Amino acid sequence: MPPSRHPLPEPSKPQPQTSPSGAGWLPHGSHMVSHSHVQGQLVYAAAGTLATTTERGTWVAPANRMTWTPPGFAHSHRFYGRTDVRLLNIPVDLCGQLVEHPSVFAVSPLLREAVLVLTGDRPEPRPGAHQRLLAVVIDELSDTPEQSLHLPESSDDRLRAVTDLLHADPAQFTTLAELGRVAGAGERTLSRLFHTELGMSFHRWRTTLRIHHALAHLTNGMSVTDTAMACGWSNPTSLIEAFTEIVGQTPGSYQADLLRNRR
Description:
The protein is 41% helix and 22% strand. By secondary structure, it is α+β, with helices and mostly antiparallel strands. It is globular. Keywords: DNA-binding, Repressor, Transcription, Transcription regulation.
């Protein structure tokens, strides 16, 4: 890929407070530590997959999604697979047109092409062209953001004890009652906390966690069958059904898109 207009920050090092726009390839497992920006920031993986984590949880974005972080929110990024990462500033005076909290947006073909141009190395063809393209980006993002790949986290100690156990081993088949005995809370209490604190059932939260791990494995080239086993599904069909519901495409088509984008 040609060099970017502005170099990306080094992985695993804090970034400056003014977020850069630009593009670059990062190796699998690259990590940008927690930081914040004066401006808003869109991050798009044109190839590969990225995860953005804030105090509100983690958002995972494959190539059909884009993460949004408003000004002032501390956040970190992790990249899975060799990632063509695109960072795009959103000036403060435009941030009010987008949601006020970190989120994930679906990426339309028009949005993808506009972001690729704005983060590429080609000079502005005419005065004001980049500003007009940025307005297109804002218009494309004006619809309700896609939330299905958001994994929320709780500040409740009992619930955090349970989610920490699941983070440590997403493939485990432990029931909520069994997890509750370790965390010192009853099954009914934990079930209620999942709904009130995280806005979803225990089953949905664990499924979303497993999808996050499945995306990382698939991006790094693991087969669908091996991914299913590694993430706790009893067979590939169960993974395919859950993956299609949450991500919007089958694991096979997701890997095919990754290969095409890399080429």
